[in-house]
Amino acid sequence: MPRLTWQAAELVTSTPETGTARTLRLRVPGWRGHLAGQHVDVRLTAEDGYSTRRSYSLAGPADGEFLDLTVESVPDGEVSPYLTEIMRPGDQVEIRGPVGGWFVWRPGGDRPVLLVAGGSGIVPLMAMVRARRQAGSDTPFRLVYSVRGPDNVYYADELRRPDPGLDVSYLYTRSVPEGVSRPAGRVTQADLAEAGRPAALAPDCYVCGPTGFVETAADLLLALGHAPERIRTERFGPSGG
User: Fold this and answer.
1) Closest by alpha carbon to 148, among 32, 60, 18?
2) Rounded to an integer, what is the distance from CA 211 to the centroid of its chain?
3) Is the bond preceding residue 98 a cis peptide, omega within 30 degrees?
4) b/e per residue, 49-65, with b = 16+ CB within 10 A?
5) Cα dihedral 180, 183, 188, 189 in deg (nearest 10)
6) Which of 1, 34, 43, 58 is most exposed, with the fewest beta carbons within 10 Å of its own?
7) Which domains does the chain have, with CATH numbers?
């Protein structure tokens, strides 16, 4: 496997997803491609030589020399506020990747897929949804998306559009929109039993979100009878942003 090196990435567009998150389309000459579920490191370097870096999941499948990152601005962060509030088309950062080879989905499999997202953990799972669509795959996908409220949903318009073979369910933890009967609250076993897929179908399960959410969701899937080897997890914790 070739050694990963830092590459220049130029911002092409910056699109709002929520009040605090944006999707950045970057152009990376010579980008060697990536798989849905992988991530990259982003490095910023100040004029005095100080540098800092953060890891961000890729939000879409391989697309030539272009890649998409969805970044949530973290208050007092060192990297995310620059990426979401200051960086303009034509500006550059350095990236290194792609990173990761286990938490990935490749078109061509015949197993159904269950995606369980907590908050911004939707990003690598959305890359899988988009990779499925790009490949014209008929693999059945089901997404269970736990999010604070309707204003916090990433990719809201895209997820509302009909996508044959993709089922989407929302679990709201703080604010419930009108017409939704489930009260606000964290994910439960009953939620995953109703909105997920039966363990008897042996789906490939991908769970991503904050550490506590991922641990809880993975335990609930195990309690529902899903095989441990079919549950893949990706988690993130507090950082400087």
Assistant:
1) 18
2) 14
3) yes
4) eeeebbebbbbbbbeee
5) -60
6) 1
7) 7-99 (2.40.30.10), 113-235 (3.40.50.80)
d(CA 97, CA 6): 8
Rounded to 5 degrees, what are φ and ψ at 181?
-85, -30
86: left (phi over 0), alpha (psi -120 to 50) or beta: alpha
Q: Please name which of 149, 84, 166, 153 lies closest in space to residue 121, comparing C-alpha atoms.
A: 153
CA distance 126 to 114: 12
Closest CA to 93 of 61, 64, 53, 62: 53
8 bridge partner residues: 94
d(CA 225, CA 146): 21
> And the tokens for 77?
């962060």
Q: What is the pTM of this model?
A: 0.95
pLDDT digits (tens, 9 = 90+) for 24-73: 999 999 999 999 999 999 999 988 889 999 999 999 999 999 999 999 99
H helix count then E strand count, the chain: 5, 11
